Amino acid sequence: MATSILLSSSFSPIPRIPGCPKFTFSTPKLNRIATPINSYSNRSFLKSTQLSPSTCSTKCRRVFVLGESDTSVSNDVLVGEDSANFDLAKQKITSWIYFTGVLGVVLFILDIAWLDNSTGFGKVFIDSVSSVSDSPEVVMFLLTVIFAIVHSGLANLRDPGEKLIGERAFRVLFAGTSLPLAVSTIVYFINHRYDGVQLWQLQSVPWLHHLLWVTNFISFLFLYPSTFNLLEVAAVDKPKMHLWESGIMRITRHPQLVGQVMWCIAHTVWIGNSVAVAASVGLIGHHLFGAWNGDRRLKIRYGEAFDTVKSRTSVIPFAAILDGRQKLPKDYYKEFIRLPYLAITGLTLGAYFAHPLMQAASFRLHW
Fold it and tell me: Can you say how many angstroms the Cα of residue 342 is from the centroid of all Cα atoms in its chain?
């Protein structure tokens, strides 16, 4: 029978109970050098994509395991990965040159095959969806539903798809299909955001713009945890399904859902019409399904490791912290002082000031 002993310090002598048999270890002798919990490649709850010790926070108190399995992991150690951990020393210049090249090629193909009205299929796609109804609310909602079906459908096919064609090829298929649909949905929203029925008008409220601006800015810190590894997003590095645990994940296990809700609330309150409501209903509905589906897929991939992460995180922001399941490190703020979060901050500010350019570019497409 395998015996697991979880240790956070040295052995304490256990007094022998009279009348009980004395337990002894048979050869080979027990290795007195305990092994870090995440180093076992055959641990059942880490399965085939086990997390290595290098992915754990170096600030964590080390927890050691003797034996084969134990799910009662100390809250002081990360079972999942340290999110947004960017080690500049491990970066290769050639990888980022390759990433820049891939990004340029993708944007060029997107322009020719989708955005350019003379050569691309974007306008044909929008016209086809628009033929279903003259209502901009219906078209807006249908665009979000089509994107959701394709995006989540391909996500569900990830495991068999990667086995069939490989991780990088499936990422190219996934991004190449999802990106044009996402662009079409965003462009249609920009061009038709003031169509439909005006439900309320609050733009004259003096403090509202500043409040919604801050809400929208914070939403982007939640919205894009996938940017923790841009090289994987572009398939320069082999894409992986990550079990993040630190940083924003301590606040909510589904930051993209929370960020999308914040973004939708901010824009819907400001615009105040039926098109904004239709877009928000579609986007929030998609992300609610994505949260459920993401947990299901992580459970399949990581098993008991995901159960451990789930037990000390929450979907509702700060819920696990308030009820004591998530204990924040004293230097928690350092988990945000990292290049990916700084990059998101810069891009968010840039996107805000580039709103006039985005609106002009969208209008030229005549979608």
Answer: 17
- For residues 365 and 117, is the Cβ–Cβ distance under 8 A? yes
Q: At what angle do helices 255-271 and 274-302 cross, to 10 degrees?
A: 180
- 141-187: pLDDT as tens digits: 999 999 999 999 999 999 999 999 999 999 999 999 999 999 999 99
**C-alpha torsion sign, points 44, 47, 53, 56:** negative
> How far apart are the C-alpha atoms of 261 and 216, rounded to whole Å?
10
pLDDT tens digits along 202-243: 999 999 999 999 999 999 999 876 556 888 988 999 999 999
CA angle 174, 130, 110 (to 5 degrees): 35
How many CB atoms are closer than 10 A to CB 230?
Answer: 17
Give the whole-angstrom CA distance, residue 115 versus residue 111: 5
Contacts of 141 (CB under 8 A, 6+ apart): 278, 279, 281, 282
The pLDDT value given to residue 244: 92
Nearest by Cα to 199 from 306, 96, 276:
276
**For residues 152 and 1, what is the distance between their CA atoms, to the nearest angstrom?**
42
Is the four-CA dihedral 159, 235, 184, 128 of positive or negative sign? negative
Q: Dihedral (C-alpha) 279, 348, 194, 137: value to the nearest 10 degrees?
A: -10
Categorize the per-residue pLDDT at 73 as very low, low, confident or very high, splitting at 50, 70 and 90.
Answer: low
* Prediction pTM value: 0.78
pLDDT digits (tens, 9 = 90+) for 114-148: 999 999 999 999 999 999 999 999 999 999 999 99
- Which residue is listed with tokens 């055959």? 42
Residues 271, 194 contacting (CB under 8 angstroms): yes
Are 50 and 40 a contacting pair, CB within 8 Å?
Answer: yes
Check if the beta carbon of residue 286 is closer than 8 Å to that of residue 147. yes
Give the Cα separation of 305 and 344 in Å (integer).
29
Look at residue 96 in the predicted model and tell me its pLDDT: 93
